[in-house]
Amino acid sequence: MRTFCPSQCDQSVERKRYDRRPLASARGSDRRRCPLLAACIATWLGFSSTVVWASLPTDMAQSTKAAAPGGLLEAFLFYTVAGGVVLSALGVCIAKNIVRMAVWLFAGLGSVAMLYFLLAANFLGAIQLIIYAGGTLVLLVFGVMLTSKSPWVRFDPPKVELIAAAVVCLALVVSLCTVLARTVWSSAEGIVPGATVAAFGERLLTTYLVPFEVAGVLLMIVMVGAAHLARQEE
Amino acid sequence: MTIGLTHYLVVAAVLFAAGLFTMMTKRNAIGILIGVELVLNSANVNLVAFDRYLGPGRLDGQITALFVIVLAAAEAALAVGICINVYKNLSTVDVDTATRLQG
User: Fold this and answer.
1) What average pLDDT does this structure show over A169-179?
2) Would the CB atoms of B93 and A203 count as touching at under 8 Å?
3) Which residues of B touch A85 (CB under 8 A)?
4) Which residue ranges make up each domain of chain A?
5) What is the CATH class of B5-90?
6) Are B31 and A98 in contact (CB under 8 A)?
């Protein structure tokens, strides 16, 4: 049984208060700003998904050339969604807080799903939303919650590293864009099928049967392995 | 104003660079994992864009992207398990402190 000692208790309370002070202020400011950020991202995602869905042809079975190539609507949609992708990717880069990084990643995954819809890959867009935004991201957030004493913990890298990484990444983007601008792709003007789910399943169970089964076995191995890794020690 | 293959590839390039920057600068293991997810997404955008513009209707790119998504989910599950183990042993997920295997 613990003995009660007033002086010790006072000390521990005092230390706790001292430890908490910087943390509390950071937590307060983050609490104020996080809902705002989440609300902005949710609004943007809702807006873009509504616009994309409204622009999709009503009869999905009919093949379309993805909203008529050269259409102003397609350009508008592409730049809106691409802007969202780039913005959320930069948000992931810049955010210091791991929870905020996860929120930005959610926005980025949603925007990439919109890109898939624009590319006439409806099934893949749905899969992206279900598995990535619904499964993988939740897993990551659980990882954040299980691996930090406080979700507001920050690890700041030295400035030199930041600058070096930024230079490398900017050089990469510039060189890639230069190469892309100079390349001429032999565009195959074919008919884009609107509804791809049936063809998707057929290809998956004929041409890609072996990788499909191997992926299933791999998922089972990973499930057992992850459960073993994360088990409670006796 | 025609949106072509190049537009999508530029978006994917920016996404890739952002993921690379995240992987290089974050110290939190989960943060590095988020960077990996960004890089995988950029590869997926490339695959689907090539599928749409170079071989429409063949679905090869889309099926490859599906496998990438499956592998990303498996990788995230294992990596989070490893992170939890590292946290149990070192009580932090700062990748600079996990040096026990260093020679």
Assistant:
1) 94
2) no
3) 11, 14-15
4) 6-156, 196-234
5) mainly alpha
6) yes
CA-nearest of A99, A102, A93 to B21 is A93
For range B23-45, the mean pLDDT: 93
- pLDDT on residue A21: 41
Predicted confidence (pLDDT) at residue A8 exceeds the cutoff of 50: no
- pLDDT confidence of residue A56: 60
The chain B residue lying nearest A171, using CA atoms, is B17
Specify which of A63-72, A148-157, A191-200 reaches the highest per-range mean pLDDT: A191-200
What pLDDT does A193 receive?
61
Q: What is the pLDDT of residues A86-114, one digit of tens each?
A: 999 999 999 888 888 999 999 999 999 99
Strand partners, A28: none
Cβ of A211 within 8 Å of Cβ of B87? The answer is: no
A15 pLDDT higher than 70: no
Nearest to A101 by CA among A136, A144, A139: A144
Selected for mutation to probe chain B from A81, A137, A140 (highest B CB count within 10 Å) is A140
Query: What does the alpha-carbon distance between residue B90 and residue B81 come to, in Å, rounded to a whole number?
Result: 14
Three-state DSSP class for residue A57? coil
Every domain of chain B and the residues it spans: 5-90
User: Tokens 């913005």 — which residue?
Assistant: A87
Taking the C-alpha atoms of residue A92 and residue A37, their distance in angstroms, rounded to an integer, is 13
| DSSP line for B75-89 | HHHHHHHHHHHHHHH
CATH of A6-156, one of 2.60.120, 1.10.10, 1.10.3470, 1.20.120: 1.20.120
Cα A14 from chain centre: 41
What's the pLDDT at A88? 94
> How many Å apart are CA A42 and CA A55, to the nearest integer?
20
Residues A179 and A21: their CA atoms lie apart, in Å, by 52
**A112 with B41: Cβ contact below 8 A:** yes
Q: Among A78, A146, A153, select the one facing B84 at the smallest CB separation.
A: A146
**pLDDT given for residue A67 in this prediction:** 44
